[in-house]
Amino acid sequence: MFGNLDFDVIRRSLPYLFLDGMSFTLMLTGLSALGGLIFGTLIALMRLSSYKLLGRIAGLYVDFMRSLPLVLVIFWFYFLVPYIGQWLTGASRPIRVGAFTSSLVTFIMFEAAYFSEIMRAGIQSISKGQPAAASALGLTYSQSMRYIVLPQAFRNMLPVLLTQTIVLFQDTSLVYVLSIPDFLGAASKVAQRDGRLVEMYLFAALVYFVISCLASYGVRRLQARIAIVR
Amino acid sequence: MIEISHVNKWYGPSFQVLKDCTTSVAKGEVVVVCGPSGSGKSTLIKCVNALEPFQEGQIILDGIKVNDPKTDLPKLRARVGMVFQHFELFPHLRIIENLCLAQEKVLGRSHDEAVAKGDKLLERVGMKAHANKYPAELSGGQQQRVAIARALAMDPIAMLFDEPTSALDPEMISEVLDVMVDLAHEGMTMMVVTHEMGFASKVANRVIFMDKGEIVEDAQKTDFFGSPRSERAQKFLSKILSH
Amino acid sequence: MNYNWNWHIFFEPNPTGAGTYLDLLVSGLWLTIKTALLAWVIALIFGTIVGILRSLPSKAASWVGFCYVEFFRNMPLLVQLFLWFFVLPELLPRAAGLWLKQLPNAPFWTAAIGVGLFMSARVAVQLAAGIASLPRGQKQAATALGLTTAQGYRYVLLPMAFRIIMPPLTSEFLNTVKNTSVAITIGLIELTGQARAMQEFSFQVFEAFTAATVMYLAINIIVVTGMRFLERSLAIPGYITGK
């Protein structure tokens, strides 16, 4: 079955796969998770704010993003970001945006919708007494959020946030549709150049599998530890 | 009818829930099992119809060995009724459907036959008017009466009650106990885990007192209430009765 | 923004010579729906089996369920589709591989099966959680009535568990719809694919994507409304879900 397969192609392309491909994937995952978390928290705060209109807008954004396939959103931003750049910089024509920037903007905006739902649940899980106690001590709304509510919400939701980040890590492979050389893109490039689809895709699957498995194992351990502390 | 001999049960390697328990319930006898929480009384009663496995000893039910791997357990369980602390009616089924399900699926009765039987039993526990409601629309006491009717619908040779009134609000306890007293008077073989000493003194033949997984006392009702021999049973009784 | 909007583009003939650009998009929409429905059936069947496995007391069964879920959850969907589409035919015996490669509509079948299996792991997780959320006594009550394990699942546990997990299942179905778009990488020209094709032929990027976006939103609204309707019609009187 494996008779005419050549697994040496993997060894030969390892530097390219990991130094170029995987570093792109991990960088995109990390920065998107960070950006998504920041924007997501802001959106969650908007949704929970007492200004009805603000909450409506945030809610619409979340529902909108969550209704669309990521692939379509990737295409949207790929074509939209140059125009947004033009608008922001006042240039006379759409600006050229690199593959990394374009994907980063996409994933931050997309993931923000998902992270915001997690943070919203986290904030709502904090008992009403906490912000009440904070304001009784004289803390302002933003102080009570910053020092009392958000840290607790973040800590309670950490396992869920990390699980979502593992999903994000896998989802970054979809930049393949823009022919961007992330890890899968790099593997696919080698696969097509050398005609070694079977070897390269099996290897790519294995790498994603091992990383995701280890990461979700870590999350389970973390969850167990948090459960004990409670 | 029920022969329990030298039953030992462990949870995990070190925690022993049942220690060398031996007792029996004769046909038509009503036996009340009491004891502090965690004493293993619920576990013991669940061993009788093999809801809980045990490692040592044996239980014989109407001549059939419960812990024999060759025993057809579903068939055996169908012949023993069980009533749970939290009623455990099936929430997605109407009351009458709750009574019919096992009659049809286990005993193979026709739907009409099952409904007729179900109606009769609902009548008997005073719940006929609620036949088409869902469990969540009934009070706890009503649900427990239905649960008793559900068990009776299988024409059981004996009934097991696992703290049937301890999840009920006080004002609903008597409506359930009344049904149980009637059942006892009709000669049903019953093994009842309960703290209701009033029920015990009214209908029980024997009272078993358990503590820390052991059967500490197994006595005729009058002996038990008259002069419990063990200190633990005396303490327990004084706590229960002073309420 | 110096972009030439042209909303009439939808009614201009598309380059395939058959119909307008709008026809193209609508055919993509149908393919999305067809693929998603088949994938969902697969996800429900396999997800139910694996979800039950995970909830069984047997160590071996739950281990098999665990491995199944981990296998499909820890690889990107895109990579899984590549495995089914590019790798599987090469690893099969020559004749079978050849047959697979020459299968008409290969992208459609691969997408439906690939997305279906991917989603089945998530359905399994939801179902196992739903079963675990039922009171332990429900299973015991079914057992005590003499129902076999299979009957207990069929008549007692699954009807309740599926009602409880209806809201998460709705979002998983919507995820299935969205995930079919990943199949454009194996040549399935569904809705996103048709929008992309329209963009390439007509250069009207934003009109094409707007139309696709509106169609996805419409699917969402229809599914959410439909499921809410279904949820309400399956709701049990008096029973509050999530308690």
UniProtKB/TrEMBL annotation, chain A:
Bilayer-crossing regions: 24-46, 67-85, 97-115, 160-180, 200-219
Keyword set includes Aminoacyl-tRNA synthetase: no
GO cellular component: ATP-binding cassette (ABC) transporter complex
GO annotation terms (biological process): amino acid transport
Localization terms from the record: Cell inner membrane; Cell membrane
Family affiliation: Belongs to the binding-protein-dependent transport system permease family. HisMQ subfamily.
Subunit structure: The complex is composed of two ATP-binding proteins (GltL), two transmembrane proteins (GltJ and GltK) and a solute-binding protein (GltI).
Protein purpose: Part of the ABC transporter complex GltIJKL involved in glutamate and aspartate uptake. Probably responsible for the translocation of the substrate across the membrane.
Name of this protein: Glutamate/aspartate import permease protein GltK
Organism field: Bradyrhizobium jicamae
UniProtKB/TrEMBL annotation, chain B:
GO cellular component: plasma membrane
Classification via PROSITE patterns: ABC_TRANSPORTER_1 (PS00211), ABC_TRANSPORTER_2 (PS50893)
Gene3D superfamilies per UniProt: P-loop containing nucleotide triphosphate hydrolases (3.40.50.300)
Cell membrane as UniProt keyword: yes
Record membrane topology: Peripheral membrane protein
InterPro entries for this protein: AAA+_ATPase, ABC_ATPase_HisP-typ, ABC_transporter-like_ATP-bd, ABC_transporter-like_CS, MetN_ABC_transporter-like, P-loop_NTPase
Protein name: ABC transporter domain-containing protein
Species: Bradyrhizobium jicamae
TrEMBL record, chain C:
Domain ABC transmembrane type-1: 29-227
GO cellular component annotations of the record: ATP-binding cassette (ABC) transporter complex
Entry's localization field: Cell inner membrane; Cell membrane
Keywords of the record: Cell membrane, Membrane, Transmembrane, Transmembrane helix, Transport
Residues spanning the membrane: 29-53, 65-88, 108-132, 208-230
Top-level division of the source organism's lineage: Bacteria
Stretches of the chain forming a coiled coil according to its record: none
GO molecular function: transmembrane transporter activity
Keyword Membrane: yes
Major site of localization recorded for this protein: membrane
Membrane topology: Multi-pass membrane protein
Entry's Gene Ontology BP terms: amino acid transport
NCBIfam families: HEQRo_perm_3TM
PANTHER family: GLUTAMATE_ASPARTATE IMPORT PERMEASE PROTEIN GLTJ, MEMBRANE COMPONENT OF AMINO ACID ABC TRANSPORTER
Similarity comment: Belongs to the binding-protein-dependent transport system permease family. HisMQ subfamily.
Protein name: Glutamate ABC transporter permease
Organism: Bradyrhizobium jicamae
